[in-house]
Design goal:
The protein is mostly beta strands. It has five helices and 32 strands.
Length: 438
């Protein structure tokens, strides 16, 4: 190394003096940082941070500013922290959406967990780096867990959010859907944000709870189902969507409502354009939204201390007087819904909306939830065929079969039978069929 480069890399007199001052006022303290990785619950998108077991010590000075607040639901001392280091802490500078470093610091006998969200106002000649953030609020401390075993086995939310997070595919296009306020760092379009307005959820009927039996122990809750008619106000914000994409996505939601009865529309939704600007590039973002008032009849389940979350639930009583039956919702798995209020204009169209002709071999009629109306046997063949609630032409059994196609020419009415997965028709030997569905 040359003398010039050595001089350029050596700390200046100002930096050396400031470093000595930091060491003196901090008494050469070090702060222990623990690495966490991001874990998102697949059902409702709730975010937790799981400790990895990796820790590191960083030297510097930690300043604490405490501001006490008394609110309706908490009394909190908000601790704003400024960590001043004499060397750049690359771990705190890195943009890594799935990783976070959390510092631990004892204040008045209490251990604070400190996460940093801001850095800047640094002079290179000074040789100091400042990192700012707040200690983790007590109400949010549950989102930092020691291991994956501490993650909750069930959804957190009680609203319809799991339904919207599962609505990612329309036509041949797939886009991610994120919960509001939990959009990942620096995500680029296209994507959708689902926001369920907390103060707008209404329930015109009283909840009906079913207790499944005795708890495993006096300190553990057991699985319990609650059935209640409810209404949510939902805002879906679409980024990176053209006019045609926005309308196709809306059409998919209407089709899903018709064919599953998981929810009904309480208004007439329409895409609305929004203006989001950035003066540096003199352009507008591709952003629009639509507000939906939705009727959500169904069951919201709660369970705790169970190795296997519920996937199926038995209704012994329905508000519309229908007979008991199983309701299975594979898409949300934790928000099982059952329609009680068919409404115009989303009632199924008599006879179906689509016809598939000349079916002579096993065919996926629809690869999403739908309704089967009529199978017309044009050529009787020599053996009976079958219809399955499925999205594949292989692997089907009596467990997912919904009908038999007799080897007799003529129409077979399936009365708008709903399917949870899709519609697969398997003609019998020599049969030719026409299928109406929606």
């Amino acid at each position: 190394m040359t003398l010039i480069s050595e001089a350029a890399s050596a700390p200046g007199q100002l930096a050396a003096s400031l470093a000595a001052g930091v060491a003196q006022i901090s008494d050469d303290q070090t702060v222990s940082f623990q690495q966490y990785t991001k874990s998102t619950l697949p059902i409702d998108g709730y975010v937790f941070w799981v400790a990895t077991g990796t820790s590191q010590q960083f030297s510097g000075s930690l300043h604490v500013l405490t501001d006490r607040h008394q609110e309706e639901d908490q009394t909190i001392a908000a601790n704003k922290m400024v960590f001043t280091a004499t060397e750049e802490v690359s771990q705190l500078n890195a943009i890594a959406p799935g990783t976070m470093w959390v510092g631990s610091w004892n204040v008045d006998g209490t251990t604070l967990q400190v996460a940093f969200s801001e850095t800047g106002a640094n002079y290179q000649q000074a040789g100091l780096w400042h990192y700012r953030g707040f200690a983790v609020y007590p109400a949010l401390s549950s989102q930092l867990v020691e291991s994956a075993a501490d993650l909750p086995p069930e959804p957190i939310v009680s609203n319809s959010l799991p339904i919207w997070l599962s609505q990612t595919t329309f036509g041949t296009t797939t886009v991610p859907v994120y919960p509001s306020y939990l959009v990942p760092d620096n995500v680029v379009p296209p994507y959708i944000v689902a926001h369920v307005e907390p103060d707008m959820t209404e329930a015109p009927s009283f909840p009906i709870a079913q207790w499944p039996g005795n708890p495993v122990s006096p300190n553990q809750l057991v699985q319990m189902s609650i059935s209640q008619l409810a209404k949510d106000n939902v805002r879906l914000t679409l980024y990176g969507f053209t006019n045609q994409m926005a309308w196709q996505y809306l059409a998919m939601l209407i089709d899903y409502s018709v064919n599953t009865d998981n929810f009904g529309f309480g208004n007439t939704p329409v895409p609305r354009d929004e203006k989001r600007t950035q003066v540096e590039i003199s352009a507008l973002a591709m952003k629009n939204h639509s507000d939906r008032r939705l009727v959500l009849p169904g069951s919201r389940r709660r369970h705790c201390a169970s190795p296997d979350p519920l996937r199926r639930i038995q209704f012994n009583h329905r508000l519309d007087g229908a007979s008991p039956h199983d309701v299975h919702c594979p898409s949300c798995a934790g928000f099982l819904l059952e329609s009680l209020m068919p409404q115009y204009p989303l009632a199924p169209v008599p006879g179906g909306t689509t016809t598939t002709l000349d079916v002579t071999a096993a065919t996926v009629i629809k690869n999403a939830p739908g309704r089967l109306f009529t199978v017309s046997v044009l050529v009787a063949g020599t053996a009976a065929g079958a219809v399955y609630d499925s999205v594949a032409t292989t692997g089907n059994t009596a467990a997912n079969q919904i009908g038999v196609i007799a080897d007799v020419a003529g129409p077979i009415n399936f009365n708008a039978m709903p399917t949870a997965a899709g519609i697969v028709v398997v003609p019998g030997t020599g049969q030719t069929l026409a299928v109406s569905w929606s």
